[in-house]
Every structure is written in C-alpha cells, then in structure tokens.
Amino acid sequence: MIVGKSIQTTAEVIAHRLDSASFEENFAWLSEQVPRLALAVETPQQPEWHGEGSVYNHLNMVFAEARALAATLPDDERYVLLLASLLHDVGKTWCTRPREDAKTGRTMIVSPRHAGEGAQYLQLLWDDMSLPVAWRDAVLSLVAFHHHPARLAESFNPWLLAYVTRCIPGRLLYLLELADIRGRIAADKAGALERLEMFRLFCEEHDCYERPSSLDHRLQTAMGNDSATDTRLLTRHALIRGKFLDPAQGVACFHAPSAQRVVMMCGLAGSGKSTQARSLAEALNAVIIAPDDFRTRDDVKARSDAWRQAIQALKQALGQGRSVIYDACNVRQDYRNNIERVAAAYNVPLGVVPVMTSPGDAMRRNRQRTGRDRVPDEVIARQFESFERLDLTRYAFWSAEEVVASLRH
C-alpha cells in the first residue's frame, strides 16, 4: 500500500503517456499508483459476458476503443476518458466471486457493486497518487457510474441522471460505456448498444449530454426558492432513490421536517473527522457522541463496551430531542447499520458526512497527534483495506456546509 504522497508528475507528462504509451506501459505505471489494479491480470470474468478472458484483457481492449473514441475530444476530457478506461473495473479485482445461479444451478462469475467499490477505493487513494487533482471528480464519476447508462435507460429517473452527470457531461459516460461494450467478446452487444443509445437520448432530453447537469439548481427551481434547505436535502435523496419523481411530493413529505438530525461522520482515523464534528456541534448546538470517549483501554472487550455505551448515549440524546454528531470512523457497513437503526427507531433523519482523506495524508496527520488520539499506521492501513462503499441510494450524503444550513434555525 502507498503510504506517502508520490512525487507529483505534471499533467503534461501524464497526458503524453496516455496518448502515446502502449496499454502495457500505462497499465504497469498505473499499477504502481493503484496496487489492486495489478490483480486484474489474474481476475476472471464470466465467459459469455467476457469471452476475452481476464479483466486485464478487457481493459486492454477498452483502452484501445477509448483511444479511438477520444481522438476528437478536448484535451482534458480525452485524458479523463483514457484514465477511466484503465481504472473503471479496478473494483472487480476484489469484488469478483463465484455465485450459484438460483434458476439453473450453474456457478457464475460475478462482480457485485464493483463500480462503486472501485470509485471509493480510488477516492481514498487519489491524494497519494501522482495524478492531477483537476481530473479526480470526473474520473471517479466515470468509474462509479459506468454501469448507470443501462440502468437509466430502464428507469428514466431524471433526478438520478442529474446526480450521475453532476461532475461530467453525459457524453463522457456514453463514450466510456461504448468503449466498454466494444471492448469485450459477448453475445448481447446489440442489446447493450441499443440501451446505450436510449441513454444518449435521455441525456439530450435533459440537457446534460454536452455539459454537466446542475442537480441542486434544478431542484431549487422545481421546488421554489422559498423551500427550506432541509426540505430540499431530504427531497434530493428521495428523488435520487426513485422514491418519487415529482419534487412537489418532497414538499408534501418534508414540508415541516424535525430540526433534529443524526449526522454520521465517516472516514479514516486521522482524516479530520473530529475537527469537523466539533465545528458542526458548535454551530448547531448538537451533542457529539464518540465511542473513543467511552474507551478506557485498548483491547477488544474495551472497544466493544465503548461501542455499546456510545449507542446507549445516542438513544438517550435522541430521546431528549437533541441532534447528534456521531463521530467514529464507520468504515464498515455493519457499524453504520446500527446507527441507522437507532435513528429510524426515533424517526430522526440520518445523513452521512464523508471525510475522504487518503491513507497517506491520514497517517501524516495522525503522527502529529499525542496520547490516546494517536493510532499505529497499521490501524489506518487496515481501515483503508476494509473500507466498505457508501451507497448513494441508501444514505443522504451531506457536506458540512449543508448540515449547518439545514439545521440552523
């Protein structure tokens, strides 16, 4: 694992590499930055979906197609597309597993949730890589949503489309998926291409094919400028999930939401979560609950006892009508599930504030700490390796600024 910030390579050098170096050279260079990418060589795929064999073979074919498709794009968009073509299936290197088909009894090779898992891994790692920050959000969006064209061609959810294209024009997602379809050996390519064309038309209909969408502006316009910030935030999440399509239903559901909230921090140790939590608590007159505050020693039983006491304190605070900033790493979904269940039991909306610092930066910050606040580098490394994806369809993701705006009276 990379634990320090790499020497920054200029965007011009990387651009030249992407334009002129072979796939093998680009793959080797990126594998030094993204360790799990190297596992693509030995990661299998289901033969009828990917007759070309391993993920490595697929990436080779997709990169060649992307180079041809990107030839006429503006420079930055071309390099974003080429990087995404190399990285889009990195999540397959740990999400791939055998699964028995319930209907046929056959064992299939599947890679569930690999797009989102891959994007989250890259997001955490980006600041430790020698890749331009200016390309980050666009590349991560392409990796995270490269399967969404087919889903959107079925659901036609304009709010999910706006969310997916908020950092990139739909054209880039279309071109990556076109390269992805062409860069495989499969029998269903005609149907996949037809769904992709439906996605392109959907983007053109909602004016996000040639440019990124403006989700919050569209939502604010649809709901009226006088809608409260917390109403818009809760409505945005419901619309993206497909709970309803008309923002007016959001006004009806959330026109007088409780000012009480559970805000769950999420990130590696040393990422700056606690600093943000303290700032939020001060601005909102909320109580901070942190399992570490209940821990008297560092062993398994003490950590378990501290967690139980923190959950009890969360219930007590919610019962008293207080808003809570739950300050913990929350890198695993089972931890998040418990906070989610408590918030639901008290009928209090829950949102997540992700603090996505790279492991290298987290380790550097952690080394400046003293006493019990400082943890060994190996703890942060383990958290990074075990970080489970935050699912956009499950949680409302808030920035710290949005939390303040939604809770301020």
UniProtKB/TrEMBL annotation:
InterPro entries, sorted: HD_domain (IPR006674), P-loop_NTPase (IPR027417), tRNA_CCA-adding_enzyme (IPR050124)
Coiled-coil parts of chain: none
Entry-linked SUPFAM superfamilies: HD-domain/PDEase-like, P-loop containing nucleoside triphosphate hydrolases
Domain HD per the UniProt entry, residue ranges: 55-153
One Pfam family in the UniProt entry: HD
Keyword Nucleotide-binding: yes
Protein name per UniProt: tRNA nucleotidyltransferase
